[in-house]
Amino acid sequence: MATVIEGKRILLIVSGGIAAYKCLDLIRRLRERGASARCILTRGGAQFVTPLSLAAISEDKVYSDLFSLTDESEMGHIRLSREADVVLVAPATADILARMAAGIADDLATTALLATDKPVMAAPAMNVRMWEHPATRANLATLASRGVRYIGPGEGDMACGEWGMGRMAEPAEIIDALEAFFAEAGRLAGRRALVTSGPTIEPIDPVRFIANRSSGKQGHAIAGALARLGAQTTLVSGPTAEPDPTGVSVVCVETAREMLAACEDALPVDVAVCAAAVCDWRVAQPAATKIKKQPAGTPPSLVMTENPDILATLAANDGRRPGLVIGFAAETGRIVENAIEKRTRKGCDWILANDVSPETGTFGGDANTVHLISADGIEDWPPLSKHGVAERLAGRIADVLGPAA
Q1: 32: which residues sit within 8 A by CB, 6+ positions away?
Q2: Percent of the chain whose predicted confidence (pLDDT) is above 90
């Protein structure tokens, strides 16, 4: 009987924790379900399991040396990292998670992780104090914001004699998580998605501009979440420091007019999510040269004109309107009431309302609290990370659209 993971290729990175011994059973279970496992064994991992045992169970070569001329000529860390359907780090020690978060590439495992364009999953395994340490928590949050998914850990006795969170998930749990991942990954297969993100900037003169405090974290997270569900995703982004989400086509713009043109070029799509914080106004005629300070401190006079409304334009696009148009309402008061009015005014299907008052830390922060406004009513979502909001929204979109016929 076929399984969800039959034919899937797993790149298994075995790092240096006592739980590495579980990987032998994990590989056996993967192969029983028709998946293949190719292993990278770190120097620390080799203290707990041998290359020979991994090779015997996987019936494939085990890789460990970044500077092996033979391995690089036969496979190479780039091919190794990209010929898999998913990269699984198990056990994921505090050390390798920290190096992943920092973008370090000083051995084959971390180089492959940095070079991969495939989804990454990790099964953490460490002492409870290490698991609870602020540095580990920060590293986990950083990796989650980049789309890394975690399996476990669990709570229980540890090899060090302590009790608590940090036990690596059992092989059966990891298999279940992989099967759930691959089942989910096809929920938007064949669908096309468009996401806007970040701020727009409107020039005053060659050195000054009007902008806002949007970081692009939420829009980038949404684009990544849609891509992980199988959607062919285009992200149109204003200037931001956020890394490009894996598997997403990114178009970089600056002004609102550039963003609208890029969105229209991306049509037709099945869903459009307008998460960008677009400047409502721009200077009608930006100065060709830097505006000089006037005598006696007289401020310059700026003639403003309204920018195009990207959300309303997409919602009203005759013939090429996305099947589902979703906007954001960034408010500092009357959050839900203003969002309800905005949904009607813009003609979109859903609005996600959020409070961006300075005390919330939403702009530039990692957390968000949203209310989903639709024709069916109001859904008050609990406080979530921006990654969590993105995953939940992508799931709701998949519930409505499903995969392409």
Answers
A1: none
A2: 70
380 bridge partner residues: 371
Separation of alpha carbons 193 and 228, rounded Å: 12
Could you tell me the pTM of the whole model?
A: 0.73
The pLDDT assigned to 366 comes to 66
- CATH topology assigned to domain 192-401: Rossmann fold (3.40.50)
Of 289, 225, 279, nearest in space to 256 by CA: 279
Question: Considering only CA atoms, which of 311, 326, 317, 324 is closest in space to residue 373?
Answer: 326
Q: Which of 105, 97, 86, 2 shows the shortest CA–CA distance to 38?
A: 86
Residue 207 to residue 214: CA distance in whole angstroms? 20
Query: Which pLDDT band holds residue 206 (cuts at 50, 70, 90)?
Result: very high
A 10 A CB-CB count for 49 gives: 19
What does residue 370 show for φ and ψ, rounded to 5 degrees?
A: -125, 160
Q: Which two tokens stand for residue 271?
A: 């869903």
For the chain, give every residue range classified as CATH 3.40.50.1950: 9-185
Which tokens is 350 given? 């859903």
User: Can you list the alpha helix ranges (DSSP code H) found in 160-294?
Assistant: 171-185, 217-228, 256-266
Mean pLDDT of 158-173: 81
Give the CATH class of 9-185.
Answer: alpha beta
Q: List, for residues 38-50, the tens digit of each pLDDT value.
A: 999 999 999 999 9
What is the spatial distance between Cα 385 and Cα 32, in angstroms, rounded to a whole number?
Answer: 37
Is the per-residue pLDDT at 346 higher than 90? yes
Task: Please say whether the beta carbons of 195 and 223 come within 8 A.
Answer: yes
Round to whole Å and give the CA distance between 109 and 120.
Answer: 12
- How far out from the chain centre does Cα 28 lie? 30
User: At 359, is the pLDDT very low, low, confident or very high (cuts 50, 70, 90)?
Assistant: low
Which tens digit of pLDDT belongs to each residue from 211-262?
Answer: 998 899 999 999 999 998 999 999 999 999 998 888 899 999 999 999 999 9
Q: What backbone phi and psi angles, to 5 degrees, belong to 271?
A: -145, 140
Residues that are catalytic: 160
Any residues with CB less than 8 A from the CB of 189 and at least 6 apart, and which?
230, 231, 403, 404
Enumerate the CATH 3.40.50.10300 domain ranges in the chain, comma separated.
192-401
Amino acid residing at 294: Q
Cβ-contact 92, 123 below 8 angstroms = yes
